[in-house]
Specification:
It contains nine helices and 15 strands. By secondary structure, the protein is α+β, with helices and mostly antiparallel strands. Strands 4-3-5-6-7-8-9-10 form an eight-stranded mixed sheet, sandwiched between helices. Strands 12-11-13-15-14 form a five-stranded mixed sheet, sandwiched between helices. A two-stranded antiparallel ribbon has the order 1-2. 46% of the residues are buried.
Length: 276
């Protein structure tokens, strides 16, 4: 992971010192957490696994990686709150910032020995999404970006896909038990009728990072938890991509739909999602 650590950000914009402090700390932290998670990945067959519901698994890798991240953030920024997939929400009252964390997004691929998983950390300060970090230990790729932070992967600039139609590339179609089945059937039919092709890798956060990197045209999903998508949303927007207004109402705590992609196909992505 040293190659990631040695990459400098092409920072050309002014940034608030408090945000910079959080970003610098989180960038180092996510790499440390990645080493921990990757250690579990190397011995995945021996992990203790529990079911949280239909197609929703949790292992000691998820729990212990989140515990590590949470404690480190609490020590460094005691004035901030924490919202993690496994431990839930810490006290919000009086908090300056909220750290939104998924310790392992793509738990099913992780437990299946597949490389389609990542760690996701987003930082919200005073109700505004400031930056996001997504680290993929299997590929040693660190995606980053935010309000005043250029979108990068391992320090190299990111730009959205240059396609102008759904047939120009791949579209990630997210689905979970919270989504209506009809959405999936309808979206696939619409996409194929337009000459497009679908993509799914089992990690919403990583798929959205690929949108920021221009590897995918876009991603649509009727419902995503904030820990699955906020970090990637910050990176996509920093890269010049377009995302629906996710943080409306109580979306931070209860989730919302996600439509994200290159601006030229955004309206077609909205059409794919329909009224779901």
């Amino acid at each position: 992971m040293s190659s990631v650590q040695n990459q400098a950000d092409p920072t050309t914009r002014s940034i608030d010192p408090e945000i910079q402090k959080r970003y610098t700390f989180a960038k180092s932290l996510i790499l440390e957490a990645g080493a921990i998670a990757n250690g579990y990945f190397s011995q995945v067959s021996s992990l203790t696994v529990h079911s949280k519901g239909c197609h929703d698994l949790v292992s000691e890798a998820d729990i212990n990686t989140e515990r590590f991240i949470k404690q480190r953030l609490a020590d460094a920024f005691p004035q901030d709150s924490f919202f993690g997939e496994e431990s839930g929400l810490a006290e919000l009252d009086g908090a300056i910032g909220v750290w939104v964390v998924d310790p392992i997004d793509g738990t099913q691929p992780f437990l299946s020995g597949l490389p389609n998983w990542c760690i996701s950390i987003a930082c919200v300060v005073n109700g505004v999404l400031q930056f996001g970090l997504i680290f993929s230990p299997p590929t040693n790729e660190l995606f980053a970006g935010g309000k005043e932070i250029p979108a990068t992967v391992n320090g190299s600039p990111l730009t959205p896909h240059q396609g102008t139609t759904l047939s120009s590339g791949l579209v990630s179609v997210g689905f979970s038990p919270r989504s209506p089945r009809q959405f999936l059937f309808s979206a696939m039919e619409k996409l194929l009728d337009r000459g497009g092709m679908f993509f799914r890798n089992g990690s919403g956060a990583l798929s959205l990072a690929y949108v920021a990197a221009g590897r995918l045209l876009g991603h649509v999903e009727p419902h995503m938890h904030s820990w699955d998508c906020l970090a990637a949303i910050a990176i996509i927007e920093a890269a010049g991509g377009r995302v629906n207004n996710y943080l409306t109402g109580d979306a931070l705590l209860k989730g919302n739909k996600v439509i994200a992609g290159t601006p030229a196909v955004y309206e077609e992505l909205e059409w794919l999602l329909g009224d779901n």
